[in-house]
Amino acid sequence: MHHSKRDIRYAPKEYTDFLMEHRIAFSIRRKGNPCDNITCESFLKPLKYEEDYRQEYGNVGEDLVSIEGFIELDYNESRLYLALGHRSPWEFERML
Q1: How distant is the alpha carbon of residue 48 from its chain centre?
Q2: Residue of 83, 51, 81 whose CA lies nearest to 68
Q3: What is the three-class DSSP state of 39?
Q4: How far lies 70's CA from each of 47, 48, 53, 57, in Å?
Q5: Using an 8 Å Cβ cutoff, are 25 and 1 in contact?
Q6: Is the dihedral angle over the CA atoms 92, 53, 29, 27 positive or is it negative?
Q7: Cα separation, 70 vs 30, whole angstroms
Q8: What residues contact 65, with CB distance under 8 A and at least 6 apart?
Q9: Element (H, E) at 62
Q10: Element (H, E) at 63
Q11: pLDDT of residue 29
């Protein structure tokens, strides 16, 4: 999944063709619909501010290990969501 803002950099046909050719789904809100990307934004904001901006990575491998740890341990296991009845995603999935 590639997430971007509605911006001139992401509009060229060559760019969107490249994403589709490589089977990369892209998330760009429709014009006049600011809530289109709310799910993606609610994930990316804590990832950026609580993990990525606080780390200094030596290489891509370190980056991936650190981000995977954040997603698995912090985001999925301990973060509570009102929409899930004040449960973490893991708790909610276990209930199902």
Answers
A1: 9
A2: 51
A3: helix
A4: 8, 11, 13, 14
A5: yes
A6: negative
A7: 30
A8: none
A9: helix 60-69
A10: helix 60-69
A11: 63
Which amino acid is it at 59?
N
**Type of residue found at 64:** L
Tokens encoding 66: 């650190």
Q: What is the pLDDT along the chain (96 residues), one digit of tens a residue?
A: 666 665 556 667 787 788 888 888 776 666 666 666 676 777 778 888 888 777 788 887 888 888 888 888 888 888 888 888 999 888 999 988
DSSP-derived pairing of the beta strands 2-3 and 26-27: parallel
pTM of structure: 0.53
Length of the chain: 96
Quote the tokens at residue 15.
């760019």
Structural Rg of the chain based on CA atoms = 16
CA neighbor of 53 nearest in space, from 65, 66, 72: 66
